Amino acid sequence: MKITLLLIGLTLLVIVLPLLPALQEWRRPSDVTPLPIDEADALEPDYMAQRFGQRLDDAVDRGLIEIGGVPLVHLPAEAVRAPWPLDEREVRSGRSRRIWHSDGDCRLPERLHGLAEMSCAGTMQAAAGHTYRALRARQALLLPERVRVLRWAHGRQVVVGDRGVLAGRISAEHSLLIGREVSFSLLHAPVIRFAGAVDAAHRPHPEGLPAALGRADGLRPGAPGQPARVEGALIVAALRHWDSDLDVDGHVTIGEGCHGQGRLRATGAVQVGAGAVLAGSLAAVGEIYIAAGAEVQGSVISESTIVLGAGCVIGLPGTHATVRAPRIEVGKGTVVHGTVWAGQRRIDIDTAPPGAAVIGYDTPVRWDHIARRGLATASLVLAPRSHHQGDLVCQGDLEIGARSRIQGSLKAHGDLAIGAGTHIDGTLVSPGEIVLGAGSHIAGSVMSEEAVVLGPGCVVGSPQQPATVCAPRIEVALGVVVHGTVWAGSSGDAPSPLLDTGGRDDEALDERTPLAPLPGQAAA
Questions:
Q1: Which residues form the domain of 103?
Q2: For residue 103, which of 154, 140, 137, 62 has the smallest C-alpha distance?
Q3: Is 178 found in the same domain as 66?
Q4: Rg (CA), the chain
Q5: Do the Cβ atoms of 181 and 522 come closer than 8 Å?
Q6: 163 lies in a domain?
Q7: Half-sphere exposure for 50 (CA within 13 Å, toward CB)
Q8: Where are the beta strands (DSSP E) in 331-395?
């Protein structure tokens, strides 16, 4: 009996011994491998739109009057301004269960909710406050405020107005422009801009940007070589841009992520939003508040007070800039390339470029200098303006100070916080919450098993390197730009046929149907 038990024990030992390293890795992971993403969603978020387009083009070429048993209405291009040929049931119920396609531009009728696919070969303008199953436009797709999309929407450029509800996949070939308080599930485009205030009644900017400042904003262009003037207050929405000097007779509010070329002078107070970049000097009679992560590439002068938010930058390397006011407040990680004067007193701020963080000597990090990879066995906080190269894994919470530079990927077993104005050339992975500070730039993907909060004016990915923001819950502030995909929880598409013909399913796709709270919220 004893021999039998001994043999069983030895057998179990032989089986379990090779698994010990795997069990140890499972309990205390030491890698920086990104979280897995389903291939169908990661690689083809616009699959539904592309598949429908193929079937529709084939039906139009063959002159069919239905697709998959659903009636098809084909409108010629010259009928863009003519009333739609609605039948009695559609007029009475305010809902259409037919597929509609126009060879030109298309303006969807008022008081008609689309419970089947709607398509056009040009620009499509939806109706405010209406519900649509699926929308497709070869050019621009304009969704005014309070539009609900149940399955998918696709266009070359897509503009989403305020308080939209995007329950399905929203994709664009060129750019996505998102308004305020928009709930979403899956967004995909080469560039996604959370502008905060967009006009979905007009064609979008060719680059997907909100329109440049102009006469509609109160600007009066000056003579050649003279600044433009604004009489009264100037309020600039997020991500707007301009290319001239500005003189403002009043207060100025500059939104998150704006880009301005030229100097700015104001007789009132000036507020510069997070992540904004002003390529010139800034002067005001009143208070100047520069939010976290913003940049002013010239001098900043106020007759009252200057507040420099965490991680903001004043001046350029090699170009002397002056920050001067009777009273000055400076946040963590602020960089000033020049001199700071508070009244008649000079304030010393380190303007040298950040040096390499000494990781592995005075911090609880085991650093492999050959593999350029570090492992922190406890929670870790890096000071503002830290700089190091290599991947870093933290077996607790990880906090990166403002205006730091990290060349590598970061993985935390707890929460992960990125300070304002920080640049990271890698991927962020955490089972806990990930918070990106204002004006931060992340070159790689951002993935969490809990939540991702994108601070105002931050940028994820680049035109050359698309990225993915993935978490069960995502919150996006004003002025955020994402190059790639924003995926909050599930994609919103149930595994169903391309075209549903069952009446019960169509009845469910009603504008009165309550939708479950979506896990993505933009510019709340």
A1: 46-194
A2: 137
A3: yes
A4: 27
A5: yes
A6: yes
A7: 8
A8: 335-336, 338-342, 345-347, 365-368, 373-376, 380-382, 387-389, 391-394
The bridge status of strand 365-368 relative to strand 373-376 is: antiparallel
Question: What tokens appear for 228 in the block?
Answer: 């433009």
The pair of three-digit structure tokens given for residue 353, joined into one six-digit string? 């470029």
pTM of the model: 0.84
Cβ count near 319 (within 10 Å)? 11
10 Å CB burial of residue 349 (0-12, 13-18, 19+) is middle
The tally of CA atoms less than 13 A away on the side-chain side of residue 419 is 25
The pLDDT of residue 351 is 58
- Please say whether the beta carbons of 295 and 313 come within 8 A: yes
Q: Which two tokens stand for residue 386?
A: 């830290």
Same-domain pairing of 69 and 173: yes
Please give the structure tokens belonging to residue 460. 């994820």
Count up the domains in the chain and report the number.
Answer: 3
On whether both 187 and 83 belong to a single domain, the answer is: yes
**Token pair 């938010």: residue:** 309
256 and 333 housed in the same domain: yes
Residues 230-253 as b/e (b if ≥16 CB within 10 A, e otherwise) read beeebebbbbbbbebbbbbeebbe
- Domain check: are 246 and 306 in the same one? yes
Total residues belonging to the chain: 524
In a domain, 281, yes or no: yes
What percent of the chain lies above the pLDDT cut of 70?
87
* Per-residue pLDDT at 350: 60
